[in-house]
Amino acid sequence: MFKLKFNFLWIAATLIIIIFCMNKNIVSASKVEYGIATSKEEATLKNSSTGFFAVPIDEEKINTINGNYWQINTVPNKEITLKIKIINSDKKNNFLVSVNQAATNSNLVVDYNLTQKKIKSSFYKQVPLNFNNAAKVAGNKNHKVIRLDSHETAIIPIKIKIPKNNFNGSVVGGVNITKSMTPAEEVNLINNTFRFTYAVVLNQGKHHNQNTNLKTNFTNNSKFNNILNFNVTNKNMNILQDIKAVGTVTQGIRSISSVKLDKGTITPLTRFSLKFAANNPWKTGEYNLKLKIYSNKRVIKNINQTFYIKPNGKIIERKNKSIIGYFKYQRQKLLQNSL
Predict the structure, then answer these.
(1) What is d(CA 57, CA 66) in angstroms, rounded to the nearest whole number?
(2) How far is CA 325 from CA 51, 219, 316, 338, in A?
């Protein structure tokens, strides 16, 4: 009886130790690992004007790191772990490490630091994975401040929870490491913000690389300013690369405004505006837009349409036909019906 009781206590104690070790491993997996910069890392810092260096690491060799971004094939309902290493210079510094949603802006440049508020206006519908909500930096929310002494290093774990529902395509986020200004920099009004950004591309299911279904429309110009916004929406879950946009707005034979952008990227489900700037505020009248959007040197959107700005700023679009002529036709039709 005593031997049986002793064996039971021994098993219980063993289980407690195992559970304690497991919990310790879980906690440590969310902790920041601190160290001292190696001579090789110090040499890298000497060639940097930022006062620090940040680089992604992949100890387990499970994630694909292509230069300045992670590209990872995922499955539903799984948690993945990324790690970023910060090497500090010879001064104490604070660093903000954050993980954010990414989206294309009006210059065809991907913004990897979207706030929750900006996410709503940057996508035409809810994204299947919101990095601002799905990511945890060192067990914290999607951001954490790391304080480092001189020549100190830190390896920061980043966990991203993949949703249960499968999505076919890609989602894009960014890991941002920003050095805070020192008190001396604030006093001297040094406004330079040094930041390292690494993209995170998560792929899942089928990829529709050939699907380039872009939707376009104007935003009404109610304030009659000199900027006319032409909205472009990528309704697909694929990334469009090597984007070039060339467009001109004319009135009669006179060129009013043009856009020429290249080497861009359009992220999945993104909604952004190409901005046609005129020398003066846009006036009521009929205009013509010619616009071509290329991806990998192939035309994926070819627009040639007439539009009319009404006195209240509302824009009426009509492809390849005169709006004024259309108005005359409608008036004649009403007159004939009234006889």
Answers:
(1) 11
(2) 63, 23, 13, 20
Asked if 34 and 153 count as a contact pair (C-beta separation under 8 A), the reply is yes
Q: What is the tens place of the pLDDT at every residue in 299-327?
A: 999 999 999 999 988 999 886 555 555 45
Q: Do the Cβ atoms of 138 and 147 come closer than 8 Å?
A: no
How many helical (H) and strand (E) elements, i.e. helices and strands, does the chain have? 6, 20
DSSP 66-123: ETTEEEEE--SS-EEEEEEEEEE-SS-EEEEEEEEEEEE-TTS-EEEEE-HHHHHHHB
| CB 174 within 8 Å of CB 195 | no
The total number of residues written for the chain in this structure? 339
175: which strand partners?
99, 198
Q: Which residue is listed with tokens 């309704």?
A: 235
pTM assigned to the model: 0.81
Six-digit token pair at 19?
Answer: 């559970």
Write the pLDDT tens digit of every residue in 195-210. 899 999 999 987 655 5
Structural domains present in the chain: 32-204 (2.60.40.10), 214-338 (2.60.40.10)
Element (H, E) at 25: helix 2-28
Q: Which H or E element spans position 6?
A: helix 2-28
